[in-house]
Prior knowledge:
By secondary structure, the protein is α+β, with helices and mostly antiparallel strands.
Amino acid sequence: xxxxxxxxxxxxxxxxxxxxxxxxxxxxxxxxxxxxxxxxxxxxxxxxxxxxxxxxxxxxxxxxxxxxxxxxxxxxxxxxxxxxxxxxxxxxxxxxxxxxxxxxxxxxxxxxxxxxxxxxxxxxxxxxxxxxxxxxxxxxxxxxxxxxxxxxxxxxxxxxxxxxxxxxxxxxxxxxxxxxxxxxxxxxxxxxxxxxxxxxxxxxxxxxxxxxxxxxxxxxxxxxxxxxxxxxxxxxxxxxxxxxxxxxxxxxxxxxxxxxxxxxxxxxxxxxxxxxxxxxxxxxxxxxxxxxxxxxxxxxxxxxxxxxxxxxxxxxxxxxxxxxxxxxxxxxxxxxxxxxxxxxxxxxxxxxxxxxxxxxxxxxxxxxxxxxxxxxxxxxxxxxxxxxxxxxxxxxxxxxxxxxxxxxxxxxxxxxxxxxxxxxxxxxxxxxxxxxxxxxxxxxxxxxxxxxxxxxxxxxxxxxxxxxxxxxxxxxxxxxxxxxxxxxxxxxxxxxxxxxxxxxxxxxxxxxxxxxxxxxxxxxxxxxxxxxxxxxxxxxxxxxxxxxxxxxxxxxxxxxxxxxxxxxxxxxxxxxxxxxxxxxxxxxxxxxxxxxxxxxxxxxxxxxxxxxxxxxxxxxxxxxxxxxxxxxxxxxxxxxxxxxxxxxxxxxxxxxxxxxxxxxxxxxxxxxxxxxxxxxxxxxxxxxxxxxxxxxxxxxxxxxxxxxxxxxx
Length: 713
Ligand code: DGJ
């Protein structure tokens, strides 16, 4: 497409990447390049002339539109589809103006105003750049100044068009207990969509984060990779459309499914952010870009500390009383963790919560189980120098609850259909401000009455079935209004309680995205805590989310030794869901030492850079490293993974991220009582050697996990 002579070159720049935007002869905003920066600034202008599009030929028009609208010359999947006030379905957006605001040395925001020449219809595109992290956060604002309301049929946050010989998409599918399994395949011509229509816990089937290899299949260390993630906790939709042999367009935003949005005159619709980064050094670098960005700019308290937890869920399920909990608090003390977390089952009186079939919504302690209320437990914990945390499932209601009896209209359900229960519960109508206020007051009330509650686990165990709100006039707004209602509650909670750590959880790990992580400090990756399975689950989450956000608990699930379980939990934020009193003497001693060891090296895991050295799918030993910013210390976790597909050849494992010229001493950490480390103390290797030749972690069927510390001498 021809570029207008007078067109500005709008550069969305990070330290290593650039997204170039220019104006076509017909006035449209074109995304002429997204890739590595060129040495010679002036050459960006030459890129567009290489575009093979010939106007008026058989080539499809609009290959490189920066925000594709439907109805005019674009005949492919649009980012935007509008029915204007007069019923017209065509939208043509022309460039109006742009400006750039620099927040600081690292962050800037480019704002580009587009308008339809025939209508008072505006779109503003926002590109927020994080230079050092090579991350772009992009979103759109849609403004209706037409004569009356208009319909937004599709309203994506962003589209980007890239070129390549081949595109390989790595996406993730899940189910309860089987989160983040991998699909990786070549994208053929046509449309491929990752989406969710589930309403809540929207990652239950598919994840809204992905990695895309461009040209060749990327490895951890090599190849061009675009990693993307949509910061939205509701229904999402990410389209990948391959066309004209070497183009791929990614369109990402809220799912328009059952959600044609009526935009009133004068109203602005703000789309959620699509976060993306480009790496030409493989998937590892793409992950590190996302992690660095997330910890600094998105995750609640991303660079602060975290508490280690003993949770009672898998130790007691619903079967507990004050005495049992008191002894668990004692166990937390014995173990050396920071906090005791009281999970499901502590509430409900008319309908006690003794199983997953009642009381959600009745957030008052059960007087039989807890005759002295939460206060006594908190006091007990604090006396032992243990903090206290509480489980809640604030968006849900049990049909057997006082809340439901008092407010049957606060529930999402289609009035002419029978109620359909998932885990015996229904979803509250978060589109309704009264319900939002109830949820806010529930959490705020508990935190105010008990200011020493030091942690919240926020669960969510149902999808939205028979979708209907008795509050909303327009049912097409339900999915969006629900998610906005959820954010509204969280926004208010964060205003009143900015510091409290909160875990995002959803019947396992079906709810994690960067929209929610703005409010949550961490998330529960899966109810599957079998350490073998966990290695894969945690491995895959690690592509998108930093270790500090991933809650890895040691439980009774799996027959592996406790050493293996704990070493696996070291991949993120460690916690426990075990009956400490059932551990034998050595296991207890080991667990106590491991908590202390974790305390010493946690900064490497929480704030270091992650390098996945050897994957658990094809290698007998899975290995990953966390290297601190100055690269003088690295923690390396190694696990024995004797799967059917693993190669039996155990070559040395090559380190990454060290200083080649520095010398590192290797030490084994976290050894089980009375075992001798196979690592001779004092062995020293250069970073160069470790990265080119490698190391042997001495992992085998008898030493199934080995934790190593490389320290610069
Ligand atoms: C599902 C969560 O994933 C579990 O950890 C636990 O909190 C249960 N809900 C409680 O009902």
